[in-house]
Design a protein that fits this description.
Number of strands: 69
Number of helices: 14
Protein name: Adhesin
Keywords: Signal
Number of domains: 9
Distance between the termini: 154 Å
Radius of gyration: 55 Å
Oligomer: single chain
Pfam families: Big_6 (PF17936), RibLong (PF18957), YSIRK_signal (PF04650)
Length: about 1200
């Protein structure tokens, strides 16, 4: 199978979704947030004194909207009133007809703050430390007018970090307590010894403007010798100051740190007001820190602990102010500012680093299937280090990039704010032969100079293009600013620190953003080509689009003007309280060389009919606050400060009026009487689909100002007023710069590694993007001669891709070997995207070799070899060698040999089915292509056959053998001849030994000859044991404490005592059992019962402790010749049922009950009164007591008395 690969290229589209955040809020933002807290939560005595004055050290505002000369009023101290307390920033009021007056003084004394002391710069002037009163604000006034601010720590110290202060520069330090400032303390920075060998320049910056140099007549050697005159910049002191923090910042761009706004501050403060315990307040601040900085819960707690906040005594406002100050401080201490001025820090420096993403990841940077991106940063690689380098360096393109706030569209000394340092800039170029280059990337830097008049000033970028790219024809392409080389520049949309979107809307040269422009052109916008060497002093200009509704009233409160535009607003008496102008779509026509004013409405510019113009103005109170709190800051900081102020005080917006343009693009917006402040207006344009448009106007950044405050970017004719019917403005025009999110990509083929050839019949393009321009779009194909061979208007992207297909057979002239075809996407007359491919006749394009797809059995002992591919006619192609197209995806069981053969040997683990192996063919002429071979892996024997197993049953006591289990397994249908499957038992220990009844499954593996395997379980049943176990109990006797006996091994024996107590034990492997019992008494009987493992129970057995036979005797009495008295119990056995027998002695005996019986006779008496047998004598009767096997013999003693006369009365007296 033959195939051509998709080429891999990268292209860039200006996509509004492609954003990155400058996740940092400057001291300016924090000041507004803290200021808002103070404004909302001030104490009653905070407004007792109103002071109006002018701070001569403050940064002058170059674009403060006003039509009247400012008036500086004397300091006025007013008596206290009963009005609600307010705190207003210092303002300069408009002139009045009333002379300045001083009201009667009050008893309140204004205490001037103590001046800062112990002021000291560090060695490189990047830090300034000092001592002042704890809690006060300290201002640092730099020589260029910039004002830095910080707060004195609780220990009385303060520090400004990340400063850019020149050698021996004099700065001023002022302490601020409320509205009162101390006298300034002057400090001289350290002298820095120069550490550069760069010779001083002699050319003044103003003479470098592109309009004074003739690109077509000035030789490179003349420019090379040109150097610049010395300026106030101290380059040798800047480099060591700026290098270190930038390195630190670039390592800290991973963490996404959110930007707090005043709304969230107010919500948190309100919540704090409802809490009473320190623990509750700390928990709320912890949550705020987590949500607004991205740190973990544990890190937030640790950071709060370092602040040592007094939750009991500090107010809610003070707690929030301290936290906001700490966040800003830590960011300033650890990162580089996103604005050109240094940001101050405070002593809250113990928090963990809060990372800043100055130029974070672009979410959708490149389109799929586009060319490789090349980083070619000439500053980063050291090729350009100075303005002289930028002037003379060969094969470079350089310039600067700005955010258009207030200034001019020139490319030097324009007063604009540079884009955040590190912003990525992209460049692409088209060579004279139509070959389109890869895309190059560089990043802006502020390191080389801080002087706005320098061509390497803030926002400088430079591309090092010395390394050529080589096309399929072997031609090396190097950009060196010759006349037929075109270039384009762009910056992706990015999000500012206040949440707005910066998007490109002007390019120098070329005017139209992101368009290709010739290196040598009569349309000069400040760029300067050193022809044959480089392009320098180009420019990129970014428009700030407001996000959110903070610049307007809520849309439900908008006033919709349906009356339409005034016919002649400049002279109309109906124009009072109105703003009029027109809106058009800017094509660049007529303005390609206009760098002095905003664009003109030329014939080629379509009128924006049906577009909506939206404008807001400020109340008198709002204007006063805006002037004091926003316009007092440098231009670069006003946007974020204005947003914070207006979010906190939406009531400052007096009205928002909208109206739709007529067929000529004209509009008039009529404001209610008293709501139009002509010096404080903001406006923008929305297209019919509701998308906010980027425009040339006075409102290239969301700020309230007069329509004529930024005339260099204001569409002509300039805004003006009819003073008779003021307040009003007319000629407030908007020139829309379309934001087109479309780029062009040639599919499959390119100018480098994938040329088209004779085997290709057509080439397609891909239109990447979605947003379509209001200007006409078209695609033009040109051939190698530059002739347009196809032109297609684009109204629908999908259909446009189909219609733009380049079919070679449709061409008037057939393609020739090495010819370059270029596709260009036009927006109006501006080329905004381009791509190219080369038509080349190569061995790769003329050969049609292919493999024969192969079926291979898995698990074979020997590999299978697939033959090398042949052309369709059977001829061997002129291939140099073969190799895997992608070695990372080549199966481990396949080897692509250099001769084109492929060795395959899949084992049994490889799944069955087709596997495509791409192979690169390298031809003798240096061309190459990728062809495929499909190897189909056949199913394994295991996948073909299914084994079965018969169940096994054994009687109890019979062990299961391996042979039984193996013999139970069969493979139905398997051939009986040849090598047979091998059956193995996975675990022999699972085989039953017959001693336990029940069922078990024995896992068995069937291994086939191809090494594939099957698993099956064999069921084995051992029958249950139904015979009761036998049990014995040994004899016992009184006094024993152990009872033992025998039964079946592993049986459970239960011993039962006479009192019912049971004792359970187990027999050992020999069947013996033994238990300990209480001491056994005579006659006690103990039983035992056994139960085996199958729950069979034995009959009980017992043992009794025997009793020892004993008999007790008692003496008897009788009278000679008389029957013994009845009832004499003379023998008593201890065991009932015993037998008593005796032999009569002298007529006396003991009967069976143990009683004496008989009549004493046959006794011999003595007549000697002293003899023992004279009157009494004792008769002994032997008695035998028998009980079972026991016999006891006792003697019974009977005393017989003499009865001589036989009268029954004994002789004894």
């Amino acid at each position: 199978m033959k195939r051509k690969p998709n080429n891999k290229r990268y292209d860039f589209i200006s996509n509004r979704l492609n954003k990155y955040s400058i996740r940092k809020f400057t001291v300016g933002t924090t000041s507004i947030l803290i200021g808002s807290l103070m404004f909302l939560g001030n104490s009653a005595d905070a407004a007792e004194t109103t002071t109006t004055t002018t701070d001569t050290t403050a940064t002058p505002s170059t674009d403060s909207p006003t039509t009247e000369a400012p008036t500086i009023e004397a300091v006025t101290t007013e008596a206290p009133t009963t009005e609600a307390p307010t705190i207003e920033a210092v303002t300069t009021e408009a002139p009045t007809t009333e002379a300045p007056t001083t009201e009667a003084p009050t008893t309140e004394v204004v205490n001037t703050p103590v001046q800062a002391q112990n002021l000291e710069f560090n060695a490189d002037n990047t830090e300034l430390t000092g001592i002042a009163t704890s809690g006060q604000v300290v201002e640092l006034h730099l020589a260029d007018g910039t004002i830095e601010k910080t707060v004195v720590d609780t220990d009385g110290t303060f520090i400004f970090r990340s400063l850019t202060v020149a050698s021996e520069e004099v700065v001023s330090v002022i302490t601020v307590d409320g509205d009162v400032k101390s006298e300034a303390v002057k400090v001289t920075a350290n002298k820095i010894v120069e550490a550069t060998t760069e010779a001083p320049t002699t050319e003044a910056p103003t003479t470098e403007a592109a309009t004074t140099e003739a690109p077509t007549t000035e030789a490179p050697t003349t420019e090379a010798a040109t150097t610049e005159a010395p300026t106030t910049e101290a380059p040798t002191t800047e480099t060591p100051v700026a290098d270190a923090p930038i390195t630190a910042a670039t390592t800290a761009i991973e963490s996404a740190v959110l930007t707090p706004d005043t709304a969230t501050v107010d919500q948190t403060t309100a919540k704090l007001n409802t809490l009473s315990t320190p623990e509750e307040k700390k928990a709320v601040l912890t949550d705020y820190l987590v949500q607004n900085t991205g740190v973990t819960q544990d890190a937030a707690v640790a950071q709060l602990d370092t602040l040592n906040l007094d939750y009991t005594n500090l107010t809610s406002d003070e707690l929030m102010a301290a936290l906001l100050q700490a966040i800003a401080t830590q960011q300033d201490a650890t990162t580089v500012a996103a604005t050109p001025v240094s940001l101050s820090t405070t002593s809250f420096n113990n928090m963990d680093s809060i990372n800043l993403d100055i130029n974070g990841p672009i979410q959708t940077l490149v389109a799929a299937g586009t060319r490789t991106l090349i980083e070619s940063d000439a500053v980063k690689n050291g090729y350009i280090n100075s303005a002289t380098d930028a002037t003379n360096a060969y094969a470079t393109l350089s310039g600067r990039a700005w955010e258009v706030d207030s200034g001019t569209p020139s490319t030097m000394a324009n007063g604009l704010t540079a884009v955040p340092e590190g912003t990525k800039v992209y460049m692409q170029w088209i060579d004279g032969d139509g070959a389109v280059s890869p895309i190059y990337m560089a990043s802006t830097t502020n390191h080389l100079s801080s002087v706005d008049g320098s061509q390497v000033g803030p926002g400088f970028y430079a591309f090092d293009l010395r390394t050529p790219w080589v096309d399929s024809n072997g031609k090396e392409h190097i950009y060196h600013a010759v006349g037929d080389q075109q270039y384009k520049l762009w910056i992706q949309d990015y999000t500012t620190i206040n949440g707005n979107v910066m998007t490109m809307f002007r390019q120098a040269g070329g005017f139209y953003p992101g368009s290709f422009v010739n290196s040598a052109t009569a349309y000069n916008l400040g760029q300067f080509p050193l022809l044959g060497t480089n392009m320098q002093r180009t420019g990129i200009y970014m428009y700030e689009e407001q996000k959110g509704d903070y610049m307007t009233k809520p849309q439900s409160e908008w006033i919709v003007d349906t009356a339409g535009p005034l016919a002649s607003p400049s002279v109309s008496l109906q124009a009072k309280n109105s703003v009029s102008g027109k809106v058009w779509i800017e094509t660049g026509a007529g303005d390609y060389a206009n760098s002095g004013t905003g664009p003109n409405d030329n014939l080629a510019d379509p009128q924006a009919a049906g577009y909506t113009v939206v404008m807001s103005s400020l109340t008198a109170e709002g204007a006063k606050a805006y002037e004091a709190q926003v316009n007092s800051y440098p231009t670069s900081q006003r946007g974020e400060i204005a947003k914070a102020l207006l979010i906190a005080h939406p009531e400052y917006i007096s009205a928002t009026v909208s109206g739709v343009t007529d067929v000529n693009g004209k509009y008039t917006l009529r404001f209610p009487t008293g709501t139009l402040n002509t010096d404080y207006i903001y406006g923008y344009v929305v297209d019919p689909s509701g998308v906010v448009q980027q425009t040339y106007s006075s409102y290239t950044t969301p700020e309230f100002r007069a329509p004529n405050s930024n005339l260099s970017f204001t569409p002509q004719t300039a805004p003006a007023q009819n003073l008779i019917v003021n307040p009003m403005w007319y000629n407030v025009n908007f020139a829309i710069v379309p934001h087109t999110d479309i780029s062009l990509d040639v599919l499959t083929y390119d100018s480098t590694t994938n040329p088209a050839g004779p085997d290709v019949s057509k080439v397609n393009i891909d239109l990447i993007g979605s947003t379509q321009s209001p200007l006409p779009l078209k695609i033009e194909w040109t051939n190698g001669a530059g002739t347009v061979v196809k032109s297609v208007p684009i109204t629908d992207l999908t259909q446009g891709e189909i219609d733009s297909e380049l079919v070679f057979s449709d061409l008037a002239t057939a393609p020739v070997d090495g010819e370059i075809f270029t596709a260009r996407l036009y927006e109006g007359e501006n080329v905004i995207s381009s791509d190219s491919f080369i038509y080349k006749i190569t061995q790769a394009s003329t050969n049609q070799q292919d493999y024969i797809d192969t079926l291979v059995e898995p698990g074979l002992p020997e590999p299978t070899t697939i033959a090398a591919p042949l052309n369709a006619d059977g001829i061997t192609p002129p291939a140099k060698d073969y190799a895997p197209a992608d070695s990372t995806t080549l199966p481990a069981w396949a080897v692509v040999n250099p001769d084109g053969t492929i060795t395959v040997q899949p084992d049994a683990t490889v799944p069955a089915g087709p596997v495509t192996i791409p192979v690169t063919v390298n031809y003798l002429d240096g061309s190459s292509e990728v062809i495929d071979v499909v190897v189909t892996v056949a199913p394994t024997l295991a996948a073909t056959y299914i084994p079965t197993a018969e169940a096994i049953t054994n009687p109890y006591g019979t062990a299961t053998t391996p042979e039984q289990v193996i013999g139970a397994v069969t493979v139905p249908g398997y051939p009986t001849t040849g090598e047979q499957p091998v059956i193995t038992i996975d675990d022999l220990t699972l085989l039953p030994d017959g001693t336990v009844g029940g069922n078990v499954l024995i896992p068995v593996t069937v291994t086939y000859p191809d090494k594939s395997t099957d698993q099956i379980n064999v069921s084995v049943t051992t029958e249950m044991d139904l015979v009761a176990p036998a049990i014995t109990i040994d004899s016992i006797k009184a006094g024993d404490i152990t009872v033992k006996g025998t039964s079946e091994p592993d049986s459970e024996v239960t011993v039962i005592l006479e009192d019912g107590t049971t004792i359970v034990t187990k027999t050992d492997q020999a069947g013996n059992w033994s238990v300990t019992v209480p001491t056994i008494t005579a006659g006690e009987t103990i039983q035992a019962i056994s139960q085996d493992a199958n729950y069979n129970v034995s009959d009980p057995v017992s043992a009794t402790a025997p009793i020892v036979l004993q008999a007790t005797t008692a003496p008897g009495t009788g009278v000679e010749g008389q029957p013994v008295p009845a009832g004499q119990q003379v023998v008593t056995p201890n065991v009932s049922g015993s037998t008593i027998t005796s032999t009569p002695v002298n007529g006396i005996s003991v009967d069976g009950t143990g009683q004496l019986t008989g009549t004493p006779t046959g006794l011999t008496w003595s007549n000697d009164p002293t003899a023992p047998n004279y009157e009494t004598q004792t008769v002994t009767i032997p008695v035998t007591v028998t009980n079972g096997t026991q016999t006891e013999t006792v003697d019974v003693l009977v005393t017989v008395q003499r009865d001589t006369d036989g009268d029954g009365i004994p002789d004894v007296t």
